[in-house]
Amino acid sequence: MKLRRHVVVVGGGFGGLSVARALEAAPVRVTLIDKSNHHLFQPLLYQVAMAGLTPGEIAVPIRSVVRRQDNVRVLLAEVRGIDLAARRISTRECAPIEYDFLVLAPGAVNSYFGHDEWARVAPGLKDLDDAVEIRRRVLLAFEAAEREPDPIVQRRMLTFVVIGAGPTGVELAGAIAELATFVLSRDFRAVHPDQTRVVLVEAGPRVLASFEPETSERARRTLEQMGIEIRTGVRVTGIDPTGVTLGGERIDSSTVLWAAGVRASPLVAALGIETDRAGRVPVEADCALPGHPEAFCIGDAAVFIPAGTTAPLPGTSPVAMQQGRFVARAIKRAIDGDARETFAYVDKGSMATIGRSRAVAEIGGIRLGGFLAWMAWLVVHIFYLIDFRNRLLVLIDWAWSYFTYRRGSRLITGHRLNAGTPGEAGTPGLGPPVAGTTVAPLAPTRESSEEASR
Q1: What is the pLDDT of residue 422?
Q2: Taking the model in full, what pTM does it have?
């Protein structure tokens, strides 16, 4: 009996999972390797960060997704090296793995443009750990402001700076503004919605630069109507635990979030192939690595420039999924001895949500905004959730939040980065005490102020 060809897929994201699922009926055995045991629906990650959804509603175990595919084996392991010449992969947990075909879909990580020291004080949003940490910091900021009697220090605690005005940055800024206005203002007594300040910083000339200028301007107006301050055309020159420096401007803030850039997984740099500034590797017209027709790279880790154009395809989930299905077909054709094809991306449009009933969308030549765009965004995102149970839970949660203005996932969990000792003055989880921070007496509540005036 002839042995089936071995296909190794690195990464269980949109691209990698699309490859594995599309090879269900192929005469191959598939090994899917990921350092996490779950597939994450990243477009809704900001909802977890802003306490709108729980992690389990946007993530599903990889094994459960492919459980009916007898030709797929899932390994929880971290790839440490790839020998393209020997067609061999090394991991930290397993013996070397040999392959006939390789598909690299390791995704991307946050990029701080040479300032990796900013990562500790300005977390990015790429995985569930990031989302839980951001949720923790945002909620702790409100908790700290509730007990802070000094209005200057309280103002800093209620100032949130989001760096990067792409879709993720816009979604985070809008969600923070709504969290303060519609949700937390009802739960706290010394914190008022008008005390919260949200600043969105973008080095480029406009927000949502990947959208058409008309759509970008519409998004900007919506953000400003929500009370969000927008700084465009400015670069961040410094970030520390007490705020952000924008050239000559200083913004005092206890919570800074990073959404300004990503780079390919460091695994790509170990291939020995020249990469671009974002660490991505250029691929051929069939998504194969140069000089290695049996090895493919897709998604955020690849630079694919369509014929007749000069701009590479964006690192979005639709691109990764289409490339994944294409590569699965390419592997089948290679086994059958058929000629290679050229990948052609079908752009189905772009969407970004800004807040409750607020979104922008570009679908073909149609531009939508407001409630209609928000409904389109909601339907599309629920449709693409992997698990039916997750779709139902997300729909119920969103309906509940929409009609009640409540968010049920406001749990403070995750890492505790407090550098001080127990009982030391400071904000739990937000680092060491900052000059000017006081802990007593407690700030007067709205009720106590009214009682004192009687």
Answers
A1: 33
A2: 0.85
